[in-house]
Amino acid sequence: MEHFTAVILAAGEGTRMKSDIPKVLHKVCGVPILAHVIRAAQQAGADKIVIVVGKNAEKIKEIFAEDNIEFVMQEEQKGTGHALMQAQNAACESSHFVVLYGDMPMVTADSIERMARFHREQKAAATVMTAKVSDPTGYGRIIREGMQILSIREHKDATLEEKAINEINAGFYCFDTPLVFSALSKVENKNRQGEYYLTDVVEILNRESKKVVAFELKDPDELHGINDRRQLAQAQKLMQKRIIEGLMEEGVTFINPDTCMVNCEVKIGRDTIIYPGVMLEGSTRIGENCTIIGQSRIKDTIVGDFCEIISSQIDECILEKGVKIGPYSNLRPGCNLSCNVKVGDFVELKNTKVGEGTKIPHLSYVGDGVLGKHINIGAGVIFVNYDGYKKHQTIVKDNAFIGCNSNLIAPVTVKAGSYVAAGSTITKEVPEDSLAIARARQENKVGWAEKRRNIIEGGTKSDGK
Ligand code: UD1
Ligand code: CA
After folding, report:
1. DSSP character for 441?
2. Ligand 1 test: best mutation among 7, 19, 78, 101, most atoms within 8 Å of CB?
3. Ligand 2 mean position, distance from CA 44 (Å)
């Protein structure tokens, strides 16, 4: 692996995003744009990362407070060349370093590593990553003579002839440290934007007869930059395709990949089938041989092998092997479901531990519960966990049976093997192997309905109609 310092330029204001959030903090597949660039650099072998930040420094620093990341300030945004100058002290330790633009999330670790290796092998003063694209509008154009790049012309400063060039500057470079900073000190801002362009070092190095080479990329998708919301959506699409294709290569089936949203940290085991419309977010890990169906949204959750989830929401939970959920259930943070648990339709679960083989098949609210094994929770059972001030715990032990439409008023315990009769409101502990009935006793008034009918209907008739 190559070892180098990477300087990431992220001080630009991102005005075209029309946003209160710094551009590089907008997310692509669940992670900030800048995080993609940092990760690619780290995976490529960057042992030190320097990020040039501007007006929104605080928000960026908060998110990326890591040991090997150093921030430098660019007080005024006077261009990419001026931005790199701010990193001179931070980058001067290594003999060469890599520069990446913070708004280019598609770049891969592999491309950065190969560029750094190429730079070293070529003994170049500067290496510029380039690609040939069908629509070069907006990008800097590569003007070259064989292997040597003579200059990079920004779109706004280019002649018609130069605009016809379809080889563009990706915004990724490898530089010889002393040579680039000496060239940078000579860059001027005599251009259409009045900025100090980093790209102008190419012409200056040429004047000094230094070697400037192109490292050409074959996949132009890696060069997709983000300046506005349209490009943000396009990046999401490209990145999503890359993630899902990677998972398919590992043996995951996607029935209609275009309709799914899978964030970049998600892991899925082989032979799992993902139906259309599924959203997998955060650090979710899905096991092998699972089936995820419908508009399910699963976030920061661990799902064991052989689970089946249908049209449900699950957030920060752990599901062991063979768990079945849904359709239409909501598992809120803190649920831990053991093997073969079944949570059926219209069930809300929160901060609850459920033992092996327990079933909560329909229409229940189960909050702050500790449930043992092989329990049956009837339809409509409510765990009454909140008294208006505090949340309380309900404990139900192994093999208990909670009849339909019961309320368990916490704190309360139902001990092992007991029954709670349907419609009960349980306020006291239920001892082992007992039956608790806590509902009004039924009284039958025999013949009452018939008498009433006679009075009403008989009365009507005697009205003389
Ligand atoms: C730049 C390149 C262009 C290349 C394109 C690739 C220059 C002059 N042009 O154009 O050749 O084809 O990227 O996407 O470099 N930034 C700062 N401080 C500043 C200005 C910018 O940190 O003062 C940062 C931005 O946050 C951004 C990056 O540098 O991450 C690129 O700046 P941007 O203004 O987007 O450059 P482009 O016009 O896209
Ligand atoms: Ca840009």
Report:
1. P
2. 101
3. 22
Structural domain boundaries in the chain: 4-223, 251-436
Token couple for 373: 């094994």
Neighbours of 305 (CB within 10 A): 17
pLDDT at residue 458, as a whole number: 84
- List CB contacts of 59: < 8 A, sequence separation 6 or more: 21, 22, 25
Q: What distances in angstroms separate CA 446 from CA 70, 443, 451, 452, one per listed residue?
A: 85, 9, 10, 12
> Which of 384-389's residues contact partners 24+ apart within 8 Å by CB, and which partners?
384/408, 384/409, 384/410, 385/410
- Which ligand ends up closest to the CA of 169? 1
**Distance (Å) from CA 66 to ligand 1 centroid:** 24
Which numbered atom of ligand 1 lies nearest the CA of 140? Answer: 11
65: confidence class by pLDDT, cuts 50, 70, 90? confident
* Nearest listed ligand to the Cα of residue 9: 1
User: What confidence score (pLDDT) does residue 119 get?
Assistant: 97
Q: Return the beta strands (E) in 133-238 as ranges.
A: 141-145, 148-153, 167-176, 212-216
> What pLDDT is recorded for position 239?
97
pLDDT of the residue at 13: 83
CATH number, domain 251-436: 2.160.10.10
Between the CA of 228 and the centroid of ligand 2 the distance, in Å, is 9
> What CATH topology corresponds to 4-223?
Spore Coat Polysaccharide Biosynthesis Protein SpsA; Chain A (3.90.550)
220 versus 37: the higher-pLDDT residue is 37
Could you give the residue numbers annotated as active site?
A: 362
Which listed ligand is nearest to 55 at the C-alpha? 1
pLDDT in tens, 331-382: 999 999 999 999 999 999 999 999 999 999 999 999 999 999 999 999 999 9
Give the residue, out of 80, 133, 165, 212, with the most ligand 1 atoms within 8 A of its beta carbon, to mutate for a pocket test.
80
Give the β-pairing of 308-310 and 324-325: parallel
12 lines ligand 1 (CB under 6 A): yes
- The phi, psi pair for 322, rounded to 5°, reads 75, 20
Rounded Cα distance between 307 and 165, Å, is: 54
Residue 310 banded pLDDT, cuts 50, 70, 90 = very high
Task: State the distance from the centre of ligand 1 to the C-alpha of 180, rounded, in angstroms.
Answer: 17
Whole-model pTM over 0.85:
yes
Please, how many CA atoms are within 13 Å of residue 35, restricted to the half-sphere of its CB?
Answer: 17
CB-ligand 1 contact for 198 (6 Å cutoff): yes
Nearest CA to ligand 1 atom 22: 11
